[in-house]
Amino acid sequence: MEDFNVWFCLKDRSNFTIDPQINSADAQYYFGRDDIKQRLQKQIRRSFIAPGVPKLMVWGPYGSGKTQTLFYLEHYLKTDTPSSARGEPHTLYVTVEMRSNSTASHLHMQLMEELGKETVSNWVRKLFDETSDLDQALRKLADDPSIALALKELRAAGDSTFVAWRWLTGQKLKANELSGLQLTRNLGEVGAGDLVNVMVAIGNLASRVNQKLIFLLDEMEELLNVKAGDAAESIHQYLRRLAEPANDSVGFLIGFKADVLDDAPAILRRGDIAGRIGKSNYVDIPPLPAVADVKAFIRELLRHLTEESSVRQRIIDTNLSSEPGVFPFEGNALELLADYATQDITRALPRYIINAINECAIQAWDEEKPLIDEEIVNSVAQYVFA
């Protein structure tokens, strides 16, 4: 018997799953939601005019495709960079983790570690190559002279460059380490704004060398875990400062789970943050609203994940009642699956639909059936969409 992927004429994959974290090529896909896709692209293009970088919130229920949305936007930024972008997008995906006592320092550390010392060091070296006075150039990029000193140290080799990086990430240094860098205090001692100043300075540095620093922050519902009032407030101040119009160098695309916006972490919907980001930049990823939308999603997915020439040949060779965009389903079976998906609107979501397609295909392969028929859909879908 043929392998599963050959049986169903799959293109460069072992099943019907889409996951850009496993297969980076999957970031190009955004099926069945052209209205949302066009809105997101429009907001991204506009954002490079004002505020200068994207500042966007993407939210929806579990399984709605928030992570896929973030990766799709990253793909869009890199492969179809808007002409409005003043620099090459440097995107970084971060799955945020928060505990009950997490503070702005924890968030800052996660962003900085994903950014990486070597990247920032390379930007400093590139700036050095392009200017006759590195000290002056760095001072123009950083409001705080201490930040300019630490950034300059990244150009060097040896232990001091690692100490400077630790300071920039918000780690506490010993007195002798601070004096070695000609610094008088640890970063963050005066509040979250201190940490944001570092991030914005690095964003300014990126812009200076023709890069646009953009973070993709996923699973930000983790902020609900933060219970300590002071800790939550420090994170709020960090994000508020990043949302300021004055910050035109560090962008962020935030994804978080919420059935309705009121379920979102309060930090992300507080007036001083929402007002800075703008209502149009809170984008809801809802369930697919109707049978026709589910069918469009499935057809587009099947057409992209299968090899059309192989599908057509398989249909001819075995006289199957299907076609590209429907295969490996019989036509009535695809209609039935779409009906199941929309019986409970809260389940009409990409995660459940893709899971149903996979489970139906596995059962068809196990029974050595060339197509998924109504019997298989009835036996599988009732559990997937329950």
Write the layout of secondary structure elements.
Blueprint: H1 4-7, H2 34-47, E1 55-60, H3 66-79, E2 88-95, H4 104-115, H5 117-130, H6 134-141, H7 145-153, H8 159-168, H9 175-180, H10 192-208, E3 211-218, H11 229-243, E4 250-257, H12 266-269, H13 271-277, E5 282-284, H14 291-305, H15 308-318, H16 331-343, H17 350-366, H18 374-384
Parallel strand pairs: 1-4, 1-5, 2-3, 3-4
Helix pairs in contact: 4-10, 4-11, 5-10, 6-7, 7-8, 10-11, 11-13, 14-16, 16-18, 17-18
Keyphrases for this structure?
elongated, five-stranded parallel beta sheet, Rossmann fold, 52% helix, 386 residues, Helicase, Ruva Protein, domain 3
Structure, described:
It is a single chain. The protein is of the alpha/beta class and 386 residues long. It folds into 2 domains: 4-12 and 289-384, Helicase, Ruva Protein, domain 3 (Orthogonal Bundle), CATH 1.10.8; 33-284, P-loop containing nucleotide triphosphate hydrolases (Rossmann fold, 3-Layer(aba) Sandwich), CATH 3.40.50.300. The chain has helices spanning 4-7, 34-47, 66-79, 104-115, 117-130, 134-141, 145-153, 159-168, 175-180, 192-208, 229-243, 266-269, 271-277, 291-305, 308-318, 331-343, 350-366, 374-384; strands spanning 55-60, 88-95, 211-218, 250-257, 282-284. The chain has a 5-stranded parallel sheet, with helices on both faces. β3, α11 and β4 form a beta-alpha-beta unit. The longest helix has 17 residues, at 192-208. The chain starts with a helix and ends with a helix. The mean pLDDT is 96.
